[in-house]
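Lecture 7 notes: from sequence to structure.

We start with a single chain of 598 residues. Read the sequence below before looking at the structure.
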Amino acid sequence: MIQKAEPITGCATQPVMRANRTRIHRRKVLWHWAPLALAFTFVLVPDLCAASDSGQSSFTVKFVSADAVYLDGGSNAGLAEGQKLLIKRKGVEDAVVAQVEIESVASASAVGKILSGGAMISPGDVARLSPEELEKLARAASVAEAVKYPQVITFTQDDPLDQELRENIPKPALPEVNRMRGRMGFDFGFMQSQGGFTSSLYGVTMRIDASRLAGSYWNLRGYYRGYRHSSGGNSQTPMLVDLVNRTYHLSLTYDNPNSRWVAGAGRLLLPWASSLDTLDGFYIGRRYGKATAGVFGGSTPDPTSWNYNPSRQMAGGFVNFEGGSYDSFRFTSTSGIALTRINWNPDRQFGLFQNGIFYKRYLSIYSDVQVDLLSASSEVGGLSSAVDSSQGPGKRDLKLSRSYFTVRLQPFRALSFDVSEIYFRNIPTFDEHLLGTGMLDKYLFQGLSGGFRLELPYRFGIYSTVGRSSRSGDAKHSWDYLAGVTNSDVLRTGIRVDLRYSKFDSSFGGGTYRSLMLSRDLGDRLQFDVQVGQQDYLSTWTNEQNRACFVNGNLNWFLGSRYYVGVGMTFYSGTDQNYRQSFVTLGYRFDTQKRSRE
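Now the structure, written as tokens:
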């Protein structure tokens, strides 16, 4: 038998062969992984170092609302909820105008609640972290530097089992989900009027901002203040404070980004047609891409509305188109039809057209037009009464009811111009007692007018509007003007002042008024505001002179983070009214998110 020869495997030969194979394998591994190591060294490492230094200490204010500011930085820039920032004028390092606290943070933006000085914030101001926040960040950075972490390598694809497990882990709710903040108080006071009439007052005041109620997309926002008189009875004529209180807005709205439906109810403005003024009612709409179509209905309760009548009912439909971006050009266009009734008797049938074009903060063009469907018999004495539009077989025509067109130009943050053309066909029914408060300034200039606003050094500002009133039937045109001066820090006391004077001669009457407004925030604990005014008003349809002087003041004292006490008073001395009104408010402040953090 021939046996197969076995290879010679000496003791010295096997270790040499193993060593050669090991060296060859190491060379192959080094050849394959060297490029990745170099890429990590020259590309990823600098990015990681830059990311560690990406925290910012200053941010720019992009937009300002009633009680919040929007910043151009978010969590990527180091912002977090609860941080406090100081708002400063751009280019003036020492001019601190307000303080805000971060409430909601996204990756590239943040929203902050205004703690003080909200009236002074303007887009373009700089928000800087307070010294306390900078110290906290420095301590956190030193602790993080001391902690060493091993390098972690992850795969581009997840393990299905691990991914399913992570998806089932409970996650914390978004900050805005089911958050409620605001204040609520009870008012107690009295009113003493001419002739010895005395009445005790009691009421409720409320301000609320509740978002994503119970995890849904319903939001409740607005404010309310109302009084009730005791058994002493109600005054026949509404008091000044009562009229101002009726201008409140309190609405429950639905806005789901994953749904095409939108809705709202309460005392509100139709978001796509603010020219309809305030409605006590509802709206419901549906989105179709960039368009929204819907219906609305309700009453007209706002005494500052041109066609104010609490017994008027309104219903109609609308279509809105919008597009663009707040960072560049943006446009919106709304068309609709509506009809009104007074105590369910025919009043108006009209169409509305509202359009706007905007470019950042530099340019805005706005137009608002309403046309009535009228019969020939509804023209009486040169003025139009839309009551007969549905009565009788006569021919119907479209008549221009109101027109408002304005162009606003703001080439610099401190300077803005505006040119407006205003026309109203019918005589207004707003409450003229509100003229001195400045809430009716938009109606004083019928015809062509122009104005400007300029911010000066030392926190001064001036503004003015001049117009030439043009009415049908006028023997000659009249010049109307309004001028005012503001200062946000009088003699470095922190007191803000607004002094204005107006002379007007419009279709509803003429006269003059003067007013002075003072306000001050004494830290985070004490706030006060005072308004003093005098008006001399002659109504064209009553031919009665109405001269009045008034003083209106409020003081709020915050006790800790939960409670506050408010004191208010009003003195009014006029031709048709003389009274004194005062109240005390005991209130409670709440914020569910702060409570959960505590």
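The longest helix spans residues 13-52. Keep this in mind for problem set 3.
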